[in-house]
Design a protein that fits this description.
The complex is a heterodimer of chains A (401) and B (238).
Chain A lengths: L2 H13 L2 H37 L5 E6 L20 H10 L3 E16 L2 E10 L2 H5 L4 E4 L4 H5 L4 E4 L1 H8 L8 E4 L2 E9 L4 E2 L2 E2 L4 E4 H7 L7 E6 L5 H15 L6 E5 H44 L1 H9 L4 H37 L9 H28 L2 H6 L2
Parallel strand pairs in A: 3-10, 5-7
Antiparallel strand pairs in A: 1-11, 1-12, 2-3, 2-6, 2-11, 4-7, 5-10, 6-7, 8-9
Helix pairs in contact in A: 1-11, 2-9, 2-11, 2-12, 3-8, 9-10, 9-11, 9-12, 11-12
Chain B lengths: L10 E12 L2 E13 L4 E5 L6 H8 L7 E6 L2 E2 L5 H10 L1 E4 L11 H11 L4 H14 L15 H13 L5 E5 L7 H16 L4 E5 L2 H4 L4 E6 L2 E3 L1 H8 L1
Parallel strand pairs in B: 3-8, 3-9, 6-7, 7-8
Antiparallel strand pairs in B: 1-2, 1-4, 4-5, 9-10
The chains are: A alpha+beta (401), B alpha/beta (238).
Chain lengths: 401, 238
């Protein structure tokens, strides 16, 4: 008897017991659909975080003041004894042949006022390089220029939210706002960027970096953001930045250079783990579905004892009977796996429609794994009932009513 | 199966015994049975219930193996064969007809008849052709698309005979084939057996009905697992 004949016999037996076959399949359908949906959700969460960082680039180094001995995040703001200054930034810019941009950054919070409206917002002191390094661009007007920085001009570029809150629908370009009481002319409006990891990039005001240092009465920088021209040079870029700053700080390593991607990768590891845990939990339901198959197959073998006896009497070998039941259970679980795959993928697609901001995705490995697993479940849980069927003695089986 | 020397009967049983072990006690099913069946024979086996005639049938049909003695089909010893080889013999050399029909209820008559061919590895079209031929032999080919549980008892038994014939076995075994049928259907069935035998089939038929046994060419009697003479049988049954 060849595989095709076995399949035909299996389908004949499903036809006589459609409801039972469907309910048995349901266990596997739910299991596979759950695996695919939960993994897709986990993947969606990861994609979401990734997209939040996408603008930040994988070629970014961040120099922060203070030395941390152990690996980890950047040092706590203000914990440094030794500062990073504008001269450090210009050293990096002049001698950093691997760097595409060097963006020193000053950070403070100020009250911004236009007429009777005020708003407390983060004020970022930046150079022109910031726009390219951080991938944040002006929509209207111009960004901070080199001459703005050198001349410490009192000009500012507004984020979308700030503009809307202070000006409403009125034209903001060329108007004068007061930041901490000082007059600043608005030279540009940023593109809308939305919220990125708890920081509303639209609710920010940009001013030239030296102007910001005056405003906050400091010569220290929060950090220096460096973009490396070539992604593959990220490690040598880090080493270059380290040695340049090491020399500039008279051979003291009182700063830290972090590769941004390395920071992110630990976050992604957590998200990946989360995805695996979710998939694993769902896989348990697939296992339960498999036990359902075994249960039904045992009942089926019992019910069809007489049939097994007849088949053996007319010449079916133990192997024939074994394969017949094994193929039945495998067909049930495989069909359930494929239906579950369809349900899972459709479900993921539906969630994608309902929550467009979550970039949900079904990874190919989840499809391959859950379908393979469902086939395996059918074989594994089918073996015991099939062996029981095959081991029946033909005379006893024929006598069984 | 190698062809046997001319002197060799189709079936040869020598000192065949069967003992069942059920837990602590042993039950004797057959004792020291010697039996030769020639090709083309039509043998009736008579005995009361529990006499061992079903045990004898099961052994003849290779559904069971004897615990003593030798059993040869065409001179080929059977008692040492593996379960797989026995399945093969049941498939190729034996056709069964049971008292309770033993058809697959949700299969059509034709599919039931095809079953032995399925396990013989015969292709689909060839199966259908031979199944219809076999159904025609027993005069029921017009019912081939009926599900077997929609057939009457007599029709079911005809389908069962067609199934037994379809692989052209050396031996047709019928265990009380008319036991569940009315007299008319029973007579019709016996006509078929007689005709098949006339066409060359070797038939062994188990019955407790002397009227049925008289249709056979010869009769053996069995009581308490032993073959006995007709006189002894009449005496014991007396």
């Amino acid at each position: 008897m060849n595989a095709l004949e076995f399949l035909r016999v299996a389908f004949e037996s499903f036809r006589t017991n459609r409801l039972r076959a469907a309910l048995t399949m349901l266990g596997v359908i739910i299991g596979v659909a759950a695996v695919i949906l939960l993994v897709a959700l986990g993947q969606g969460a990861k994609n979401y975080v990734e997209s939040q960082f996408a603008g930040l680039g994988s070629n970014i180094l961040i120099a922060t003041p203070g030395k941390i001995e152990t690996k980890g995040g950047p040092p706590v703001i203000g914990a440094a004894k030794h500062k990073l200054t504008m001269s450090d930034a210009s050293v990096l810019e002049k001698k950093g042949y691997l760097f595409a941009g060097v963006a020193p950054l000053v950070f403070g919070t100020s009250e911004v006022r236009f007429g009777s409206r005020t708003r407390n917002v983060p004020v970022l002191g930046v150079t022109p390089a910031f726009s390219d390094v951080r991938n944040l661009h002006v929509e209207i007007g111009s960004f901070v220029t080199d001459s703005d920085v050198e001349a410490k001009r009192r000009v500012c570029v507004l984020g979308r939210t700030v503009r809307r809150e202070l000006f409403g629908n009125a034209n903001a370009l060329g108007q004068v706002v007061k930041i901490s009481g000082a007059r600043f002319r608005v030279i540009g409006i940023m593109e809308s960027k939305g919220v990125s990891l708890a920081m509303d990039l639209d609710d920010v005001v940009y001013v030239p970096v030296r102007t910001a240092q005056d405003l906050f009465d400091t010569d220290a920088l929060l950090e220096i953001i460096i973009s490396v021209r070539n992604k593959s040079d990220i490690d040598s870029g880090k080493e270059l930045a380290r040695s340049l700053l090491f020399k500039a700080h008279s051979r003291h390593e009182d700063f830290t250079i972090t590769i941004q991607a390395a920071m992110l990768s630990s976050l992604f590891t957590i998200l990946d783990t989360l995805t695996y845990v979710l998939g694993g939990i769902a896989a348990i339901s697939l296992l339960v579905g498999g036990i359902g198959i075994m249960n039904i197959m045992l009942v089926t073998v019992k019910e069809r004892t007489n049939e097994i006896g007849i088949r053996k009497a007319v010449g079916a070998t133990d192997r024939d009977i074994l394969f017949q039941f094994l193929i039945e259970s495998t067909v049930i679980s495989s069909a359930g796996g494929l239906c579950g795959l369809a349900v899972g993928v459709l479900g993921a697609w539906a969630i994608g429609l309902l929550a467009p901001s979550l970039p949900i995705a079904v990874p190919p490995w989840a499809i391959a794994l859950s379908v393979t697993f469902s086939v395996f479940v059918g074989i594994f849980f089918g073996v015991y009932p099939a062996r029981k069927a095959a081991a029946l003695h033909p005379i006893d089986a024929l006598r069984y009513e | 199966m190698p062809s046997a020397p001319a002197s060799e009967p189709l079936i040869r049983l020598r000192g065949v015994g069967k003992v069942y072990e059920t837990g602590t006690q042993t039950v004797v099913g057959l004792t020291d049975v010697d039996l030769d069946i020639a090709a083309g024979d039509f043998l009736a086996v008579m005995g009361p219930s529990g006499s061992g005639k079903s045990t004898l049938m099961n052994i003849l049909g290779c559904l069971d193996v004897p615990t003593a003695g030798t059993y040869a089909i065409r001179g080929f010893p059977v008692e040492t064969l593996s379960p797989e080889a026995l399945a093969r013999i049941r498939n190729r050399e034996i056709g069964f007809v049971f008292q309770v029909f033993h058809l697959l209820p949700r299969y059509t008559a034709q599919k039931n008849v095809e079953l032995p061919l399925l396990y013989a590895g015969v292709g689909r079209e060839e199966r259908a052709r031979r199944a219809v031929d076999a159904l025609r032999t027993v005069g029921i080919e017009d019912r081939r698309e009926h599900l077997s549980n929609q057939l009457s008892g007599g029709q079911k038994q005809k389908v069962a005979i067609a199934r037994a014939l379809v692989n052209r076995p050396a031996l047709l075994l019928a265990d009380e084939p008319t036991g569940n049928l009315d007299t008319k259907s029973g007579d019709e069935l016996m006509e078929i057996f007689t005709r098949l035998n006339a066409e060359g089939a070797t038939i062994v038929l188990v019955t407790h009905d002397p009227a049925i046994a008289r249709r056979a060419k010869r009769t053996v009697y069995i009581i308490d697992g032993r073959l006995v003479t007709a006189e002894e049988f009449r005496e014991r049954r007396g």
